[in-house]
Specification:
7 helices, mainly alpha
Length: about 220
């Protein structure tokens, strides 16, 4: 095998690994959201009486999110790798910033939710009576359903714009991404299932990148 062949195989493996990371992020994020949605009432104004019954399930869902976050960072890396020298600095900056902000807000909301679970295990009655539970529950709800999802929408819009400009993925995927991004920007906080559109879009892009990578490897 020549040095050129080795370089080509190395270039092909990075996108493949990133595409797999996007799929891993999507699966873990969807699993975590689904468990939380099934375990926790949608309204943030509940009385907290459900907490003793969901400590294990919600705790498991929260433990999935750090791994999903690592996979999402890897996914961002492979998208930038595919942009290469054609990367638009303006859109790339918004793309990277919105992706990192989305992840930071998801982690912040998860930390608040984890704090509620730990505090309930230590001081269950005082947590509810003091009003701390209501405040923390509302904060976690607003962060993930309003701010994080809007950053996800911005991430989708900038990614799709870059895709249209440099051919990162097919145009129909980009236009579908615009529509889903508008759903997140306008419907997050109102539609309980709206957050699922983001990981579903990521898994669609990841599968396309993985397929394109195998085609390129076969041609090489």
């Amino acid at each position: 095998m020549t040095n050129g062949d080795i370089m080509i195989r190395a270039e092909l493996k990075a996108p493949r690994a990133g595409a797999v990371a996007g799929i891993v992020f999507s699966v873990l994020f969807i699993a975590s959201l689904t468990i939380i949605r099934l375990s926790v009432p949608v309204s943030p104004h509940d009385a907290g009486t459900f907490l003793p019954d969901v400590v294990k399930s919600v705790g498991f869902a929260l433990n999935l999110l750090p791994f999903a976050g690592v996979a999402f960072l890897w996914f961002i890396g492979v998208l930038r790798d595919r942009m290469g020298e054609l990367e638009d600095r303006f859109f790339a900056t918004v793309f990277l910033g919105s992706g990192i902000l989305f992840l930071a807000m998801v982690f912040t909301s998860s930390a608040v939710a984890g704090g509620i679970l730990m505090s309930h295990g230590l001081l269950a009655e005082k947590l509810i009576e003091s009003g701390i539970y209501t405040f923390a529950r509302t904060v976690a709800y607003v962060i993930v359903n309003v701010y994080a999802m809007k950053m996800a929408g911005v991430f989708m819009i900038t990614t799709c714009t870059l895709a249209v400009r440099i051919g990162l993925f097919p145009r129909w995927m980009a236009f579908l991404g615009y529509a889903l991004a508008l759903l997140l920007l306008l419907g997050s906080g109102r539609l309980s299932l709206a957050p699922l559109t983001f990981p579903l879009w990521v898994i669609m892009i990841s599968i396309h990148i993985l397929y394109a990578n195998f085609r390129s490897e076969a041609a090489a």
